Amino acid sequence: LATGPRQNNGIFYEIRTYDIKPAKMKEYLETVNKYFHFRTAHSELVGFWYSELGAMNKVLHIWKYDNFAHRTAVRHALANDKDWQGKFLSAALPLVEKQHNEVAYLVPWCQLGKPSKEGGVYEWVTFQMKPGGPALWGEPFRAAINAHINTGYTKLIGVFHTEYGSLNTVHVLWWNESPDHRAAGRHSAHEDARVVAAVRDSVRFLESQKNVLLIPVQCSPLK
Predict the structure, then answer these.
(1) Could you tell me if 96 and 138 lie in one domain?
(2) Last residue of a domain, one of 75, 103, 131
(3) 9 DSSP 8-state letter
């Protein structure tokens, strides 16, 4: 199935989601804040968050790689990093119930953004699209995203289209000043005829969607 145009370089993003054992989140985050510099010494961390609403006891982090050979080299180096293995993994893995990863590209019309200031909250919205890729749904989906941006209440950070994992999936990362700011903006957007028209056009290609409100951890570059 055609996926449409894609970036000319090999850069991709690995999205990792971990389920943490109930009552162990505080201990897990303390371990991350203490030892995660051993991991970020090997490759670029885009952001690291824990879930606040929409899911419980989850963390999500995004890594940037130049290509698949780059990721392979990083994974090999981590396997031989005694500090990473002995200090972080030995303490963190017993706290984890489940791990899941996906490989994704930014959609062709999106560049990775940053919030206008530190603080605030992030919203991770997952859209399960009909098969066909951006060649099929790209322009209507882009119009719906832009309609929300144009309301001014939210900041787009990135739009990711999966290559490995759950296929035909798009993840959209938004930033808002607060949950209440988001709620007020969403209410206004639902009454905006431009947003309503753009969303109505894009949902023709949508099968399901879900979202999670995320809080950045101390070591996250995106705060």
Answers:
(1) no
(2) 103
(3) S
